[in-house]
Amino acid sequence: MTHGFAPVTAPDARVRAAAEQRQTQLTKPAGSLGKLEALGNWVAACQGVCPPRQFERARVVIFAGDHGVAKHGVSAYPSEVTGQMVANFLAGGAAVNALAAVAGATVRVADIAVDGDTDPSVAQHKVRRSSGAIDREDALTEDEIAAALTAGRAIADEEIDAGADVLIAGDMGIGNTTPATVLIATLTGTEPVAAVGRGTGVDDAGWIRKVAAIRDAMRRARPVAKDPVDLLRVAGGADFAAMTGFLAQAATRRTPVILDGVVVTAAALVAEDLAAGAKAWWLAGHRSTEPAHDLALKHLRLEPLIDLEMRLGEGSGALTVLPILRAAVATLAEMSTFADAGVSTADEPDSVDLVK
Q: Does the predicted TM-score (pTM) go above 0.85?
């Protein structure tokens, strides 16, 4: 299947080198801001300018979709919660809304495959109602996978064209850690029991059902594992395909993205296969408690910034990191250099003659 993504050009290495040089001239001991320095250098390289600009339009897009596998006892919550949470996002009452407000971001919701009607304002890219139960049927048809990838690309274009300078993909969908785990375990060659977590908090019986569903879905996915589009069609879902298109297109459009948890990172694994080099434009926000998330991050060779034992989704982990990224930009852009501040460096003679 064709997908239309070319290999992605990396962030600007010359600007990154200029940022690294500027870090040595700022009023601090070399390397004393630790990982903040590398983050600031990365943002400068992404923007192609040093010093970097502070983010003016940080944007979260929550991809909402239901999954047929949720009806088979793999989640602690019923599928109806997905549509109810979409309404909660629109009303401003969810964790993502609170975190976005404090981080200086705004939130958009996209109903890609919610199993019910949602506000028309969020349903313009809707592909279908609920993706198929992947342990026993394909998630999508060929037309639907094409529509979902196109939706994700279009949403990325809409946001970037409207001025978004850093993006966060979030997710909402009861049962969505099951396809996420199938995708990650398939692409990393991991046994189901080593990859399956508790998701929203299933009990032991639910965990056993979840392992069985993932095992069955992985068996169905194996023949298409080397084709990212077919893999999404068979074992992912419309929301996963839209997230994949979104992440690949953001990188193609040279726009940095903060990755969230296991669901978004599962889509990122596939997006890197679709658009080689896309991961250079992504920052791993956090490490969730889902075992598959750590597997995916290691496969992508991305080191998460924080580990707060979060497992909510919605973009919550990525939003928690956004103020840290803002701090990295601020220190690189707004600190004085030694020359500007008239501060002596370690290898200069003392400016004051100390006589006893």
A: yes
